[in-house]
Design goal:
alpha/beta; Udp-n-acetylmuramoylalanyl-d-glutamate--2,6- Diaminopimelate Ligase, Chain: A, domain 1; UDP-N-acetylmuramoyl-L-alanine:D-glutamate ligase; Protein-Tyrosine Phosphatase, Chain A; six-stranded mixed sheet; 20% strand; globular
Amino acid sequence: MIRKTIEQLTDMMKIENDISAFKDRVIQGAVIDSRQATDGQLFVPFKGENTDGHQFVRQAIEQGAGAALWQKDVPNPPQDLPVLIVEDTLLALQQLAKAYRDELNIKVVGVTGSNGKTTTKDIMANLLSIKYSVQKTEGNYNNHIGLPLTILSLAEETEVAVLEMGMSNKGEIELLTNIASPDIAVITNIGESHLQDLGSREAIADAKLEILSGLHPEGTFIYYGEEPLLQERVAEMERQNVKTFGFSESNELYTLSVEPVKTGSHFTVNTAPSVNYFLSVLGRHNVLNAMAAMMTAHELGIAYPDMKAALTSVELTKMRMEWVDGIKGVKIINDAYNASPTSTKATIELASQMPGFDRKILVLGDMLELGMDEELFHYQVGQTIDSESIQYLFTFGRLGQFIAAGAKNTLGEDRTFAFTDKNELINKLDSVIQGGELVVVKASRGMKLEEVVQALAAPLK
């Protein structure tokens, strides 16, 4: 992580007060939660709508923080503490992260996309660890605050950083990529997430392509080659080192075969046709994420055949295709971290094709941030449910009722249940379960459907 004297920080960001009394004090790392401020870290307070972090500066330093930032327009900065006055604490954090990234002798991979970026990041880090010391974005630290904190956490000996870049609005990816200055930029796909803010898939594609703003001039751009919106825009660019992955032969990296099984997928690719890969992550769509990761690893000098073992041991961020043992011998797939129409349809397809289960139950919740057509998107998701392979559908939330409505034509009234009360859903679901079923749970993060998973989970022995 960053380790600098306070005097050295003055060369990395603009500090507006006299820090000479504390110039030799060393800070290491940065935090935004005063409760975590220990071991010489730099505490970065923010002015929020309800809470002002500046009121916790003294507490943070007394419990071990090395110093704290202080926003210029906040009155009464403490004179007896190592407080660094800056114009804006958020901008100072971002400026510091950018300066630290530029100092590091490191390769940076930036990953964005409407769906799959976290899974791709996790697979990528696993593959790159074959050859390099790797750090990756942890949890959901993928925004204008989280990405700078991730960069400041990078050890000097780290050789490759895999940085996830999330967004809600135009301009956000541009900010992140200009801080991170990636050597490789990856777009997993273009979906419907953020239609509420951006208005169209075309606008989403433009926003995701902002990642190229910070890409090194000689860097490599890797993207899903079967997305027309990306194809059209990339064709108009004068950029070298562009590579694509997908299922069709039009891509530089493509699959020759894909065989989903209960614990993942076997697949082969054109670049190593004799190698039978096994990806220990559920879902055919995750084979695409694996290929994005494979192309990245190959760009950094790892041979395709050498990736076989690493693909079998991928560990995903929690609530991403996570297997959970449930009551009555039920098996649960917890995919409740996030959802969009594209990813939910992929999860439905996964459940439909999953071998080894006589009865399968879907628990689907609202998909958020879809804009004015949100009800239609939910209805269309419901229409994709196959009544022969799915026995029951449970939905949660106002919009989930439209999924149920779309499914009733095939599943029927007696196999489709819509709820706006989570406890009622759990009780009904428990009454339907006979034993040994597959239960698949999927929704946007705000719906907190992991509470359903927790209610059905088998007690620890």
